[in-house]
């Protein structure tokens, strides 16, 4: 199927993700943050990658996510915190656009990434 987003989440775990969204006023200026939780998401971590930037090692962790709710409140500009993440209060970012399945029970899939260093 050309152009379809296919993720193998069979090796993933189920966890709740905390969404942290910037709130803007009518002029587009940030006024704070809104927080909500996406429950029961299948999350499959990929192998981390590392590279050197300006003499410092930078590590990027990436995870594939599938929310059971196709209408999950997820935007490309959202940030996430993962429960039990060893990085503590690390903030993951969405890579690309969330994809909504046209099929019943298909859910919403997206990729999140965390870069440190």
What characteristics describe this protein?
57% strand; 6-stranded antiparallel β-barrel; 117 residues; mainly beta; single chain; Thrombin, subunit H
Describe the structure.
By secondary structure, the protein is mostly beta strands. The chain has one domain: Thrombin, subunit H, CATH 2.40.10. Helix content is 0%, strand content 57%. The chain contains no helices and seven strands. Strands 1-2-4-7-6-5 form a six-stranded antiparallel barrel. A hairpin with a 2-residue loop joins strand 3 (49-53) and strand 4. It is globular. 16% of the residues are buried. Residues 1-6 have low confidence and may be disordered.
Topology of helices and strands:
Elements: E1 13-24, E2 30-45, E3 49-53, E4 56-67, E5 79-82, E6 92-100, E7 108-116
Antiparallel strand pairs: 1-2, 1-5, 2-4, 3-4, 4-7, 5-6, 6-7
Main beta sheet: 6 strands, antiparallel, barrel
What top-tier CATH class fits best? Mainly Beta
Helix content: under 10%
Strand order of the largest sheet: 1-2-4-7-6-5
Compute the CA-based radius of gyration. 15 Å
Q: How many helical elements?
A: 0
**CATH-level-2 architecture:** Beta Barrel
Beta-strand share of residues: over 45%
Number of β-strand runs: 7
The separation of the N and C termini measures 38 Å
Please name the CATH topology. Thrombin, subunit H
Uncertain residue ranges: 1-6
Give the H and E element order. EEEEEEE
How does the overall form come out from the CA principal axes? globular
Q: What's the overall average pLDDT, rounded?
A: 82
Structural class: mainly beta
**Count of distinct structural domains:** 1
């Amino acid at each position: 199927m050309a152009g379809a987003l296919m993720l193998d989440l069979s090796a993933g775990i189920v966890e709740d993700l905390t969404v942290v969204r910037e709130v803007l006023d009518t002029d587009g200026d940030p006024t704070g943050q809104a927080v909500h939780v996406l429950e029961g998401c299948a999350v499959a971590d990929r192998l981390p990658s590392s590279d050197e930037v300006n003499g410092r090692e930078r590590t990027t962790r990436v995870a594939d996510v599938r929310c059971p709710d196709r209408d999950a409140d997820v935007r490309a500009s959202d940030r996430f915190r993962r429960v039990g993440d060893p990085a503590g209060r690390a903030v993951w970012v969405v890579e690309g656009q969330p994809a909504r399945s046209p099929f019943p029970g298909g859910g919403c899939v997206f990729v999140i990434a965390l870069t440190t260093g």
